[in-house]
Amino acid sequence: MRLDSLTGDWISVAAHRHGRAFLPPASECPLCPSSDTNLSEVPDDFDVAVFENKSPSFGPDLLTGDYPNYAVVPNLELGSVRDSIGRCEVVVFSPEHLGSLGAMPTKRVRTVIEALADRTDHLQSLPGVKQVFPFENRGQDIGVTLHHPHGQIYAYPFITPRTTKLLDSISKYGSDLFADTLKFEQGSQREIIKSDNFTAYVPFAGRWPIEIHLLPHRNVQNLSELTSDEKIELAEVYRRLLHALDEIYETPTPYIS
Questions:
Q1: CA pair distance 235, 250, nearest whole angstrom
Q2: How far is the C-alpha of 238 from the C-alpha of 99, rounded, in Å?
Q3: In whole angstroms, how far apart are CA 138 and each of 141, 144, 147, 153, 172?
Q4: Which one of 80, 179, 229, 245 counts the least CB within 10 Å of its CB?
Q5: Active-site residue numbers?
Q6: What is the DSSP letter of 5?
Q7: Entry pTM
Q8: Residues 200, 241: contact at Cβ < 8 Å?
Q9: 210 has pLDDT over 90
Q10: C-alpha distances in Å from residue 102, one per residue of 93, 99, 213, 246
Q11: What pLDDT score does 26 carry?
């Protein structure tokens, strides 16, 4: 990691990622179940699979010793570097080479959420990890390098810039920022879905041509703190959102989630 002394952000430099697979055909896909002609990352047929990324931006080394301020550099000293400790994991949504999460059965989406919750809980316990971030990039236009439906989980050794800004806003506004935001958005023309435990909406100050926020109706820090019933409900709400995105245009809508 290299420190951008102008902003205070850490930039992970991972030149080895240039050698990763780039849009291979199904016969060479590293995320399809292994066959006699394609020894992939996944040894057998599966429902949902999770494994460490072979071309990670962070890890696989973890912090050794006591460094409570590992990612803090006094006075933003020019030329500061740190090892990119942490973890990068791949979450494969289906054994099928093509498709999308929004088109999969709700039961499969719930399995994905359960896997993300389980891995989030574990990764947060690793030494030196400060933030765990599950995400999906979908669509070649958004920069994916594999067609196979999948997501990723990053375990960072620092608090990401956007989350740092969010924490600053909470300290300025107060601990009710999320609850008040939910009340502000519910019932507005921007509300998309309101279920028993979740609300999806277009944010008042959205910055993208297409942008949707999804909030639970109670404070939870991450997916692992959701109840079993909430995960079932989230799977249905999230599947509906992703499916709706693909109804906007004639071709599937690229997204970052």
A1: 25
A2: 16
A3: 8, 7, 8, 14, 35
A4: 229
A5: 150
A6: T
A7: 0.93
A8: yes
A9: yes
A10: 11, 9, 16, 8
A11: 87
